Amino acid sequence: MNDKRIIVAIDGPAGAGKSTLAKRVAAKLGFIYINTGAMYRAVALWALRLRVATSDMHRLERLAQEADIALTLEGRVLLNGEDVTEAIGDANVAAAASEVSAVPGVRRALLSVQRGLAERNSVVMEGRDIGSVVFPQAQVKIFLDADPAERARRRARELEQRGQAADVESVAGEMSQRDLRDRTRAEAPLVQAPDAELIDTTGLSPEQVEDKILQVVRARVSNGKVAQ
């Protein structure tokens, strides 16, 4: 790995605050923000449009191999040239993505894409297996978590802000099922890497969590430009 390239890996379950914090930290450090979850959602969206069953692992793998997924510096998500940023935020797409991401062939297909995005740039990459599988050599590894009830409230609030009806209890049930799938899947399960710093975001503001992450970055990276 290029010694001048710095990778900050942020993992954790849904609702722990990964996207919000990864964006903030990337902006603060001047790094590129990469949301790997958006890639799985893009594949799931394409599968739903083509009516490919989430149980059809072979076709899902082919879709992942053929999909042209791009993430812009502004945080937009492009699928085969189409801006699908809003579309992949739909609750049905999120549910499908949870199943699609459990397909080993899909994960392998997107792994090379994810690594390629960080070949030339310092990045803050968020997901569920960044520190454990995608970049086990990352200089900084963070694992964000929070109380399940708070995670469900955050997710429900996020859906409501997008104009989607969201019942906290229903969201909590869906998240519990997703947690089980993510933690027990055979390929790249959601786990805290041994050298990752655990940060419990329960009851903390984004500013407070950002400060904690930046403290870890400063402690693990000697490059003075990073310690802003």
Average of per-residue pLDDT values: 91
Order of helices and strands: EHEHHEEEHHEHEHHEH
CATH class: Alpha Beta
Kindly provide the radius of gyration, computed on alpha-carbon positions and rounded to a whole number of angstroms: 17 Å
Helix proportion range = 40-55%
Low-confidence stretches: none
Instruction: Figure out the total of helices.
Output: 9
CATH topology: Rossmann fold
Task: Please explain how this structure is put together.
- The protein has helices at about 20-30, 35-50, 55-65, 90-100, 105-115, 130-135, 150-160, 170-185, 205-220, and strands spanning about 5-10, 30-35, 70, 75-80, 80-85, 125, 140-145, 195-200.
- The protein has about 230 residues and is an alpha/beta fold.
- The protein is built from 9 helices and 8 strands.
- The radius of gyration is 17 Å and the shape is globular.
Q: Descriptors for this entry?
A:
49% helix; five-stranded parallel sheet; alpha/beta; Rossmann fold; 228 residues; globular; 8 strands; three-stranded antiparallel sheet
